[in-house]
Amino acid sequence: MDSDCQKGYTTQPVLCLHCGNETVMEVVGIHEWGSQQPDDEFQFHYTYRLLVCPTCHRPTLHEIYSDEESCLPPDYESQETILFPSHSVGSPAVPKKIAKAYQAAVRAHGIDHSLCAMGLRRTLELILCDLGATEWGLKDKIEEISADERLPEFLKEASYLTKRFGDDAAHGKEADYDFFDVEYMVGFVGHIIDYLYVLPYKLNGFKEHTELKKKWAKDPEPIF
Questions:
Q1: Which residue among 15, 149, 198, 216 has its CA within the 20 to 30 Å range from the CA of 49?
Q2: For residues 5 and 67, what is the distance between their CA atoms, to the nearest angstrom?
Q3: Could you tell me which residues are beta bridge partners of residue 26?
Q4: Interior CA angle at 78 toward 76 and 83, to 5°?
């Protein structure tokens, strides 16, 4: 991501998660806040950038965070995050091959609906295989993973829609759907990734955090 915080245009191409186009974007707004005084106990800084895609004219919101420990090892470096549109592929919980396939499908969204639909179908099949599906066809894989309730009914239906759109695209039958139909499919697969990978990861992180708080409350350890 481009960390230039000046109004005007980004100095590097930015991937639009709405349409999949990767291009220089206009910076239409900047907001900054952080520690108020130079002698505050801990120095930190947030910068928010509102970007607009020249292709689909939709906004992207970046958050850039840094603090006085940014010069320390990687865990403390400044972080840049996409707050909007929401996306999951940047989470360490998502297997790299699945994140890569999903990103490729999103990139194709602004180029060719058929390529995007087929890419989403491929992403779905990779997800089901990663979950341990052994059946041959995608329909059977969906049924196999749904049978043990790892896919709730609404995600099972979303999976079937993704399969149908991908099958139609592969066989040249995509005339009945448009850019916005495929955009729904992009969102559906994103929600499947959220449910299966990102939410459990965040939940476990929160549980570990609360356990550490309990531990420190009983037996505080010195910071240095």
A1: 198
A2: 16
A3: 9, 52
A4: 120
What is the average pLDDT score of the chain? 85
Q: How many CB atoms lie within 10 A of CB 53?
A: 23
**Tokens 């245009």, residue?**
9
Looking at the fold, whether 125 and 192 belong to one and the same domain comes out as yes
Residue 158 lies in domain: 96-205
Q: Domains in the chain: how many in total?
A: 2
Q: Of 124, 116, 200, whose CA–CA distance to 157 is shortest?
A: 124
Q: Does the residue 1 lie in any domain? A: no
- Given a contact cutoff of 8 angstroms between Cβ atoms, the answer to whether 185 and 165 are in contact is yes
Percent of the chain with pLDDT over 70: 85
Quick check: is 184 in a domain?
yes
**Cβ atoms of 47 and 30 closer than 8 Å:** yes
d(CA 196, CA 213): 27
Each residue of 46-70: pLDDT tens digit? 899 999 999 889 999 998 888 765 5
Token match 């928010």: residue? 48
For 69, the token pair is: 């420990």
Instruction: Give me the amino acid identity at 70.
Output: S
Residues 42 and 104 in one domain: no
Span 124-163, pLDDT tens digits: 999 999 999 999 999 999 999 999 989 999 999 999 999 9
Question: Is the pTM value of this prediction over 0.85?
Answer: no
Amino acid 12 reads Q
Give 12-37 pLDDT, tens digit per residue.
998 888 887 889 999 999 999 887 66
